[in-house]
Amino acid sequence: MKTVTNFKKVGKFINTDIWKITESELSKSRRRSYRFIKTLILTARGFISHDLPVRASALTYSILFAIIPLFALIIAIAKGFGMEKLIEKSLEGTFIGEADLTPTVMGFVQRYLESTQHGLFIGIGLVILLSSVMNFFMQVERAFNSIWQVKKSRAIIRQFTTYFSSVLLVPIFIVLSGGISFYFNTILDQSFIYDVLSPFIRFGVMLTPYLVNSIIFTIIYIVIPNTKVLPKNALIAGIIAGTSFQAFQSLYIHGQIYLTSFNVVYGSFAAFPLLLLWLQISCTIILLGAEISYASQNLQDFEYEVDNKKISRRYKNFLTLYISYIVVKQFEKLAPSLTAEEIANANKLPVKIVKEVLFELVDASVLVAVHSNNFETRTYLPAIDIQQLTVNLLISKLDMNGTEQFLTNKNDALDAFWKKTMEMKKRSEEPNEHVLVKDL
């Protein structure tokens, strides 16, 4: 019985109590531990609600179409720097190499590049190559935007420049990783320092792929979503996802010996289902990292989450009027306009509900959102002359925002009741019709 009670307490703490404790109420050490717990909870919740395994399957399908064009593009870039052999060698340390797929993949890539160089590389071949890679990255961006709750993707030009500048970095990181390993294994091997620092050098060589993967994943989490991702949150996710990816790859490679039953059943075809499984789990790790970066950056949005969902209409109206008052007074004082986060922090309000109220006020043309820093920062200003913005006008704008009267002229009783309601509402508003929001 005591165990059941303890489980209920833990469940209540995870679902309700922890979200009622704001960071300003906690000490520095407790704040970190609470942030960690909240991030874990939100990541697990996002994993389930966003159905990440299904999204990973969709990405796996996209990768199968894009993998050869993507490798072809990377190798074409690498050839320009004389690094194609290093790229090929780096594949041998992955699952592709262990499954004896490197010659097959490189053969496909070579034929693909040859087919595009027969007078068509600056034409149809280039278009097909770039469109295949673009389509893959667009699928990834949609998945990331869904996790980040971003409704709009980038413009095509921005997508093109963002994606292909990212692809340019891949050979550089591979060369960097291979160069460090080569330096430790050959140059230092011939010096007396190697004997002294041998354990540390071996550890450094072993750590290099984890470090490179963490950097690549961090860049992915900053660049791909069509929103501002703070570097520290992307770095946290990048380290976790990059380390998990490399650890999974090592485990998968060394576990090949236990998958001999696949070879018995599938023969030479065994590499294909194993490749699909590897891609599926890899995509799941990538998406899970996106969930971690989103959760760690947006913890404040989930404070008082249960109460936000149950907020009364009266209190929501009160907060709407109060937030409008703050924006108007800021404008009247000629002070800098505020972001949703600044309003929430200054008044100890839940960020999520402040954002909801501001969205409704902008949608009703009471406020206007002003973008700055390349659409990364959004502040708010009055959309109506503050000498004309009365309390009644504000409430009327909110009440009338949307569709109404679409059922009139079909029901006489409904029409009559509507007229009575409007007359009664007008009488109740008369005492406050000249009260300005700024004078509250």
Structure description:
71% of the residues lie in helices and 3% in strands. The chain has 440 residues and is mostly helical. The chain folds into two domains: 48-301, no CATH class; 307-439, Winged helix-like DNA-binding domain superfamily/Winged helix DNA-binding domain (Arc Repressor Mutant, subunit A, Orthogonal Bundle). Strand 2 (367-372) and strand 3 form a beta hairpin. The two termini are 55 Å apart.
Question: What's a concise summary of this model?
Answer:
The chain has 440 residues and is mainly alpha-helical. It has 18 helices and three strands.
Please specify the SSE layout and strand pairing.
Blueprint: H1 2-15, H2 28-49, H3 52-80, H4 84-91, H5 95-98, H6 102-116, H7 124-147, H8 156-187, H9 192-223, H10 231-254, H11 260-266, H12 271-297, H13 305-309, H14 313-332, E1 338-339, H15 340-347, H16 351-363, E2 367-372, E3 377-382, H17 391-400, H18 412-429
Antiparallel strand pairs: 1-3, 2-3
Helix pairs in contact: 2-12, 3-6, 3-7, 3-8, 3-12, 8-9, 9-10, 10-12, 14-16, 15-16
